[in-house]
Amino acid sequence: MTLSNGSTILGTDIEDIYYFPLQNTKTRSGNFTPYKQNFQTFRLRNLSSTDEELYRTITFSPREDCVLRAIRLHIGSATPGETATLTIPAQIVADNVIVGGNIKETIEITATTAASPINSTALYELPNDQLFTLLAGDNIEMVITTAFSNIDITVSLLLEYVLTSK
């Protein structure tokens, strides 16, 4: 978008600049505890299907307990029709012991590049009754899979923390 005197900036103009649109920031409903929200963003460049899983895995280790509100997967490529999938595996191990927060179901998001512009975004929003708590110090692994080469991936997590007085 070209700016000139008297021009109007639309929400879609901002969304084209920021991978995680501002309107996705949410307030908790039914809870009056003060919260703060922030984004944690990860970027993988020139990802290929032949890359080992080690290079297609993002590990997030929060410093303090937080709640996962939403996940956005952005894919960019020089070719339309290419896809990538982000998977966060369930974190339950034997005997109902939970590790890595309380992610009880595998989360999976897929994005496909479009014809124009040649990028795409997929959003996974968690409803208030299905929020996942990520525990401080635990490792949350997110695995990217694709059948294509030379794609750029950006993963954004919208996290929510309880404000505490120190």
Number of strands: 11
Strand content: 35-45%
Instruction: For the record, give the distance between the C-alpha atoms at the N and C termini, rounded to a whole number.
Output: 45 Å
Order of helices and strands: HEEEEEEEEEEE
* Rounded average pLDDT: 77
**In CATH, what is the class?**
Mainly Beta
Question: Outline, from the CA principal axes?
Answer: globular
Question: Which CATH architecture is right?
Answer: Sandwich
Q: What is the domain total for the residues?
A: 1
The main pleated sheet reads as: 5 strands, antiparallel
Number of H- or I-type helical stretches: 1
Determine the fraction of residues in helical runs and give it as a percent range: under 10%
What's this, in brief?
With 166 residues, the protein is mainly beta. It has one helix spanning 11-17, and strands spanning 35-47, 57-60, 66-76, 83-88, 92-93, 97-98, 107-112, 119-125, 132-134, 140-145, 151-162.
Outline the structure in words:
By secondary structure, the chain is mainly beta. The protein has one domain (38-162): Jelly Rolls (Sandwich), CATH 2.60.120. 4% of the residues lie in helices and 43% in strands. It contains 1 helix and 11 strands; from the N terminus they run αβββββββββββ. The chain has one helix at residues 11-17; strands at residues 35-47, 57-60, 66-76, 83-88, 92-93, 97-98, 107-112, 119-125, 132-134, 140-145, 151-162. Strands 1, 3, 8, 9 and 11 form a 5-stranded antiparallel beta sheet that branches. Strands 2-10-4-7 form a 4-stranded antiparallel beta sheet, with no helix packed on it. A hairpin with a 3-residue loop joins strand 5 (92-93) and strand 6 (97-98). It is globular and about 45 Å long.
